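Running this now, will post back.
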Amino acid sequence: MHFRLVRPVKRKGTINQQFNQRIPADVRDRAVGVTLHIPVGHQVVRKTVTSKDHAIRVSLRASTPSEIKVRQAQVAGYLETVWQGLREPPLVLSHRQAVALSRDVYGWGSLAEIDPDLSDAESAFTGEIGGGVYKNAMARLEAETDPSGRDPAMATAHQILVRRGLVNVNPVSVELLAREALRSLKDGFTKADRETAGDYSPDPKASRFPPLEIANSTTTATGPAAAISLTGLVEGWWTEAKTAGRTISTYESYKSAAARLIEFLENDDAAAVTPTNLVAFKDHRLAQGVSPKTVGDSDIAGLRSVFKWAVANLKLPSNPAEAITVTRPKVVRTRDKGFAPEEVQAILAHSLHHHRKGRESDRLVAAKRWVPWLCAYSGGRLGEIVQLRKQDIRKEGEYWVMTITPEAGTVKDKEVRLVVLHRHLIEQGFADFVTGAPAGYLFLKPRKDGETRGVRRSVKNRITEFVREVVKDKAVAPNHGWRHLFKTIGREAGIQDSVLDGICGHASKTVGGSYGGVSLRAQVEAFEKFPAFIVSS
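Update: finished.
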């Protein structure tokens, strides 16, 4: 679908910008009387085109450039689908297509979203009325007319079509969809009735809906009504995101979140996902015992990003996850995040005196010996340290340095940094260990195909278990505690925060602080102040 994106317009008295696009002259007469359901973010704006309208104007309800751009494309994509539909002969739906479209009202979230006037049904979904309301709402839907004098089933069918951008559909097809929508609503009411009675077993009728396939000039592969799977959206997002430097671990996280949602909804139709579906999914995950942080930062955030990409690329009219949030309980901390002095002694002594156990590899023995000490003297992340390679340790003049680089594996900020090695590490023989080590990774062995991610995770787990042998308190992170302790000791020694941030790989708190860097000389002076960890033998 190709069309010209008009620029958003500023309005007086508001910081939000407005979408303003002329109605194409060739469809203007046919557009009169059409009620548009224009997606703006996660909301839907209804507008009926009148004979006086020459343009479609709607507030984008956004003021930031990035959000304005996404919503501008979102509205333009929806309207282009409508205009193109009006240019074509009326669309004739097959029975299969009508059944696929009727899935939009099988779930309670979709029903409330598509037809808010069905107040009984909406109240039933939100739980404001008891279980008996399901039968009342069903009786109302099966009636020929409601109190307003309209046919609820036909009204629901029109709502489904307009939401999909299909405004030019053969009347016989609308009647066919109305019948199927009524059947889907009945199935949905029956399922809700069972759940109210405490029966949450899977509904066999949930899998009866085929994927939506409408392929003609009215709905192209990028139009809102095209068959779009959530799985396909994740892959489409990844194709673009990996060129922008997003990591494989992010892709795997998003892919897993999408797979869990598909399993929960028992359907892979991305266009049918609604905000209420996602609220139900969120509640389901929390009920499983998954932490609010994981649900918010992994599940919902991942889905929000994928749907946002879909909207920006005109594959979906709106982002159902945009406004979904997860409330997190306030963390009660019973101790400092850094290690206590006795824990420092226990970990470093455990590391210093470690000897091979069982069938431990040379690299794992070396990891247990050196990784805790490297973390202690650098505040480095555990993953950054376990992926060090021989070529990452070298001598600069009279000082030894290590290079933490994305070339070795995952680095959170994706930036390389040099860290001076504390003199105590050299005194213990770390430089001699590196000199005598074989080429490549010091603490892990890549797989035959060169992949290190799984091996890296395994070594991290072994180090975590190793530290937990002597630090039993679950209130302190077994390896991340070094980052907190490093900052604490550094400040006590009078080292500037900007230098400590540079060594640890922490982002600057200000824009000005992000300019320049921390030189080796500044680090050398800092480490001369940083005291050595004295461990009793």
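The CA atoms of residues 116 and 122 lie 7 Å apart. More later if anyone needs it.
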